Amino acid sequence: MSRLGALLATTALVASAALIGSQSASAAPACRVDYTIGSQWPGGFTAAAVVTNLGDPVNGWHLSWTFPGDERVTQSWNGSHTQSGARVTAVNATWNGAIATGASVSFGFNASSGSRSTPPTAFSLNGTACTGAPATTTTTTTTTTTPAPGRPMIENNHPVTREGAYGDNRFTVFRPSSPQSIDRPLPVLAFGNGACAHTNNSEVTRILTFVASKGFVVVNTGSADGSPNGVPSGSPIPSLLTDAITWAEREHTRSGAALHQRLDLTRVATAGHSCGGLEALVAAQDRRVSAAASLNSGFFADGAFGYPRSELGKLHTPALFMDGGSSDVAYANNQANHDLATVPSVLARHPQAGHVGFITGSQLVDGMTTVVQFLDMVLNDNQTAREYVLSPSGLASKPPWVTANKNF
């Protein structure tokens, strides 16, 4: 089931389509839960519950629901979980227990299921049923309509600012220049460079500017001016990409930051080229990540760089595997990785791109368009992007592209 389909299936939980803009401190308990199934495959699925607090501030939370079938939570993130029969209770982590009035917190998990999972029908937060109705107050509240899924991100063309990451010269940030003017929070992409270049990112400046112009905040390894930053190059360091996500989390809460409260940290992806693609696939095992894109890369059969193909079994998110055809040194690896992946995955091949055509060649726009459309499909459940990626009339109909997909 798609993210949008899951949301539609849970409309009974959402009695109000408005977000509370301001509330009295005397508001009664109230909450809304948006439950989404991000991806589903035979025997399992990935899901998330976003809890919006419509009442008094909460300091410490537990969210409970009952599955309608045989679903069993196997892994969780942004908190812990217990399950007794079909009843599940999620409890906050040490760092996300506070939910201010009007604020949201998310809890995600993987689960097994003997059949196609359907959304639960009721949730409770700290014992209060989440009906979606705002709390009753003695003051007037202001409301704003929740924005519906918009046009595909590929149609955006925002001016882009490239700058060093605040307080951490290991990273360069590519972002829309005026994030406050964009009508919804921005998804985050952590990107690893070819050759595992951890100082100089000049080779990927064009492609990451393109991606950022579509409405992403991209955090890339390497200092903005190419100066030494204490990180060696040449071998995968996947923790750099997870550190990039952590940096984005801090920047989201830093007062005065251009990105203050402008990031959507429930929609985070990793991607990378060549050696950086290995970094992206390993970093995608982090539970904060919801999508991965491997460009001209893949785990080697002999476990080169210390990462065997068994790493693919640790993925929990949909993945895109792109290569440049038989002249691409990563061609066989990319194909094998797609074949071995157990998560929903897309294979996209441009036979004329070779190993660097998506990065510096004439296939740059085609390649990055595919990346943006894939991320828009997975992170935002944009149906136009989904048609582009998965439909026979989409990318598959654009010669000389060759595509395949599974588990969607």
Automatic annotation (TrEMBL):
Which residue ranges have biased composition labelled Low complexity?
127-148
Give the UniProt record's GO annotations in the biological process aspect. Answer: carbohydrate metabolic process
Query: SMART domains in the record, alphabetically?
Result: CBD_II
One Pfam family, short name please? CBM_2
Keyword line = Signal
Source species, domain of life: Bacteria
Gene Ontology MF terms = hydrolase activity, hydrolyzing O-glycosyl compounds; polysaccharide binding
Q: Which PANTHER family match?
A: CARBOXYLESTERASE TYPE B DOMAIN-CONTAINING PROTEIN, CHLOROPHYLLASE-2, CHLOROPLASTIC
Q: What is the protein name for this chain?
A: CBM2 domain-containing protein
Q: Which organism is it from?
A: Lentzea guizhouensis
